[in-house]
Amino acid sequence: MSRRGAVFAVVAVLCAPVLTTPGALAAPVAGGVVAWGATDYGAVPAPPETGAGVTAVSAGSLDTLAIRNGGVFAWGDNNFGQTEVPAEATSGVSRIASGWAHELALKNGKVLAWGNDWYGQTAVPAAALSGVVDIATTAQHSLALKQGGQVISWGTRTDVPPAAQAGVSAIAAGGDHNLVLKNGGVLAWGANSYGQSTVPAAATSGVTMISAGYNHSLALKDGGVLAWGANDEHQTEVPAAALSGVVAIEAGWSHNLALKSTGEVVAWGSDLSGETSGVPVFCGPVTGISAGDRTSNAVSAKLC
Question: What is the pTM of this model?
Answer without folding.
Answer: 0.92
